[in-house]
Design goal:
35% of the residues lie in helices and 18% in strands. By secondary structure, it is α/β, with parallel strands linked by helices. The chain has one domain: Rossmann fold. A hairpin with a 7-residue loop joins strand 5 and strand 6. 37% of the residues are buried.
Amino acid sequence: MTWKDIVNRQQGIVNFTEELISAIGKTRVLVMGAGGNGAVLDFLLRVGYQHFVVVDFDAVEATNMNRLPFTMDYIGKVKPEAWKEYLEKVNPGCCVTAYCRKVTRNDEKWLKEIISDVDIVVMGTSDPEANFVIARVCHRLRKRMVIGPGTSNCWVVSTVTHEGDVSIESVGKFGVEHVDARDVDYQALLPKYMNIYMFPGRIEKLYPETLQKVRSGEIPPRNCKIFVSMVNAAACWEIVKNTAVMNGMALQNTKVIEFPLIQVFDPFKGSAYYYDAGKDRIGIPNWLTGRIRWYPVTK
């Protein structure tokens, strides 16, 4: 099997030109966090991406089997190494760099080195401290960053293009733009982080008593293969679109979803909408005209 075999069947789908497929094969993707959101690696590999950097500190557990493509013999292996082994089994020609490391407030210098060497970053960690430092480095380097919480239980995605002053920090109104990352109170920022991603309808995906236990830390966040795969697919598609834009290619019938705009498809209600995290409003698209009607949201 060759890389050309993997990408053969998607040729001819709108936007999947030979030029874009070639660019996909050369694009370097960094995935920060190799758990549920990290499963985007499997999607990316099968779309034709070949160059990956994977960062995580955790090991594969039995509870990961509900959303990761591993088999039971992967249990106990460090996730970055497990992904490296898996990806190279599917495509022996791909290149995977694995880092077993927990990202902290002290890692700005190291992050700058690895982020400088890739084309796009996928945010797959749920740790506020790691999220903050990664996002700050991406903003300073003007590296595109794709986000979409795997625990949202729906299709949700956005790209932080880091054009102008738009960043996670500015939209979240963190108020720490000039504070050294090592001095930030990350626990105090947690509610502001949650506010960014708390799009309308999200809390309805969990029973109230379950939501309370998750928020208090009694139990880990809830996830399901069905919905995590939707986020993985959304992130993969968003990375494909970004790959086209970064290589000067025009997109047909679609566009990159630029943060603070977040694209949502709610499979429970069968509804699609945009959430503007900066203005707390939702936009309902008209698929016939392309127009969006905006409504304020009260949280």
